[in-house]
Amino acid sequence: MESLPADWVALWDVFDEHRSGALPQVDVGHIMRSLGRRHTEAEFRELLQPLPQPVPFDAFVGLMRQPYNGPTEEDLRIALQAFDVGGTGRLKVGELATLLTTLGEKMAETDVRQILGDVPVDAHGCVSVSELVRFLTAPVAAATPEMAELQRQLAREAPA
Fold first, then answer.
1. Which among 56, 27, 43 has a CA at the least distance from the CA of 157?
2. Cα–Cα dist 68/9, whole Å
3. How many other CB atoms are there within 10 angstroms of residue 83's CB atom?
4. How high is the pLDDT of residue 102?
5. DSSP summary character for residue 16
6. 31 with 60: CB under 8 angstroms?
7. Residue range(s) in the chain whose domain bears CATH number 1.10.238.10
């Protein structure tokens, strides 16, 4: 039997409460994000579309074994600096929130508030591009999350 990273198995087990060996695609997406895969929604749809529903564990393992060439810290820094018109290394939180909810793959306002709520903001209402990049690319803890916290997060993400 092959050895798998413990965090893959642990996170799968958190979501697979009934030990059915298969999960809805949305849960597989949550697990992959928790493991640091920062695909866009469109990329997740493309990855998950050919898989059976619900997704069996072995298909999840196959996805995780695929090479991941997501955005690097430098890619993110360059993208954010494009909006730093003054070259100060800082972005106004309000402007950043507007960008995230209106350009490209638009984020929900609640998601933007959650992300920006965890980033240090200075007295002028700005965030450091470097701090923001560090925050957005920080590795996700490999420890098994607490069930109560996962349930709170899922409840926030569930459609109304």
1. 27
2. 19
3. 13
4. 92
5. -
6. yes
7. 6-69, 73-137
Residue type, 120: P
Compute the distance between CA of residue 13 and CA of residue 43 in angstroms, rounded to an integer.
24
Q: What is the pTM of this model?
A: 0.60
Distance separating the N- and C-terminal Cα atoms of the chain: 42
Q: What is the percentage of the chain residues whose pLDDT exceeds 90? A: 51
Helix (H) or strand (E) holding 146: none
Backbone angles phi, psi at 55, to 5 degrees: -85, 120
Place of tokens 């002028």: 124
CATH topology of domain 73-137: Recoverin; domain 1 (1.10.238)
In tens, the pLDDT along 95-138 reads 999 998 998 888 889 888 888 888 899 999 999 999 998 887 77
How would you classify residue 159: left for phi > 0, otherwise alpha for psi between -120 and 50, otherwise beta? beta
Extract the tokens encoding 147: 């069930």
Paired with 128 in beta bridges are 90
Q: Which CATH superfamily is domain 6-69 in?
A: EF-hand (1.10.238.10)
